[in-house]
Prior knowledge:
It contains 5 helices and no strands. It has helices spanning 19-50, 52-63, 65-92, 99-126, 129-132. The N and C termini lie far apart (106 Å).
Amino acid sequence: MATPQRPLSPHLQVYRWQITMSLSILHRVTGVxxxxxxxxxAWWLLAVTASPExxxxxxxxxxxxxxxxxxxxxxxxxxxxxxxxxxHLAFDCVRGFEIKQFYASGWTVVALSFVLTxxxxxxxxxxxxxxxxxxxxxxxxxxxxPARADWARPRTACTTGxxxx
Length: 165
């Protein structure tokens, strides 16, 4: 007797595509995006500690149009992952398991992630954001008062009487 060729377990061909499937996949993809963004953060930290020239190079790249696009994508990944994580915390508290609530919370996470990302970028771009992050000129420290000769004399740590300098 011949057995029919069919999958051992249900697969994507069997299921109708749903928002819950999309959100699950998107949550994983944004997690990978955040991991890749961590390398960018490490690059920024290395540039900050290396030299002002390296930092200026990094800020020029981050301030360019492709750099801002990458930063916007990273910030959306961060905000979406955060919102979806809060949604999953609600699931852990046994809230929102009705089908209508499940769909509503999913669409809310998607919409809220775009709104919060747009709001954060509007704040960054209207306040100068990346343009202000790099100083235009070198700032030198200049004392406000003239140095006196007795300030250069070494002093002891003792504050009670009997110490000699």
